[in-house]
Inverse folding.
């Protein structure tokens, strides 16, 4: 799928998680719901860091372009080292390592570890990166006609404000993990979810997605998971733009209403 659809699906997924928590009698503090949805929307773009034309590869100027090249080469190297007899030869790493459940979990765990060991500046960095990506994905029409600096300023301002809100007692810094020293450990959860939602979205397209790597399926370790080919669509097609994106908006709205118990 394209970036905007990925971001919308990520936000909708976290709002759905919020509704599930509320239904189970453990509602999220509203700042966790809002910040988690924005982080998940940003994280749902992150697996495409292995593609030089992706939104995330352009979002932070030379830094993200260089990182894109590194991730692409790393992904390609891992693919070549682990491919099965039935896996085709490839010239690049797109839709390989960063499009697996293993990668999603590792990135989420790494983020949580960074948040609890790196202190406030680490948390601000995590929020900034994902809020910039959320702006790029959710407000893509505006972002593409604005300068990168304006998007970065919006991300930085939002980060500072939302971090201050979360730091208030009871607002969510210690949500779910409330032991001393575990503040913001939950930040890894929307990142795992966003990456997995991205993978599932790509699995619906004609190319499929190797979510289950390294589990061998037949003669392949990079088996492109997906529904029957008749049910798949091309990225950027009318199915994505006219059906899936409006559906994500409606699902997100329903999840937000359920999470906040508005009625």
């Amino acid at each position: 799928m394209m970036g905007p659809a990925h971001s919308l699906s990520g936000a909708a997924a976290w709002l759905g998680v919020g509704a599930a928590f509320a239904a189970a009698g453990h509602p999220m503090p509203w700042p966790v719901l809002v910040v988690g949805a924005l982080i998940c929307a940003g994280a749902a773009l992150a697996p495409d860091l292995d593609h030089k034309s992706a939104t995330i590869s352009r979002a932070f100027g030379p830094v993200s372009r260089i990182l894109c090249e590194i991730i692409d080469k790393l992904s390609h190297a891992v693919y070549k080292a682990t491919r099965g007899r039935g896996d085709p030869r490839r010239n690049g790493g797109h839709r390989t390592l960063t499009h697996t459940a293993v990668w999603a979990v590792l990135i989420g765990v790494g983020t949580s570890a960074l948040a609890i060991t790196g202190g406030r500046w680490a948390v601000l960095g995590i929020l900034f990166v994902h809020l910039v990506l959320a702006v790029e994905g959710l407000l893509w029409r505006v972002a593409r006609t604005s300068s990168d600096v304006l998007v970065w300023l919006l991300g930085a301002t939002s980060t500072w404000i939302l971090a201050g809100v979360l730091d208030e007692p009871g607002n969510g810094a210690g949500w779910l993990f409330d032991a001393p020293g575990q503040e913001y450990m939950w930040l890894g959860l929307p990142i795992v979810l966003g990456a997995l939602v991205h993978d599932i979205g790509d699995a619906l397209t004609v190319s499929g997605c190797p979510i289950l790597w390294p589990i061998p399926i037949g003669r392949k370790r990079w088996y492109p998971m997906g529904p029957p080919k008749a049910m798949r669509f091309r990225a950027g097609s009318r199915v994505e733009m006219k059906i899936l994106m409006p559906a994500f908006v409606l699902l997100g709205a329903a999840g937000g209403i359920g999470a906040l118990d508005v009625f």
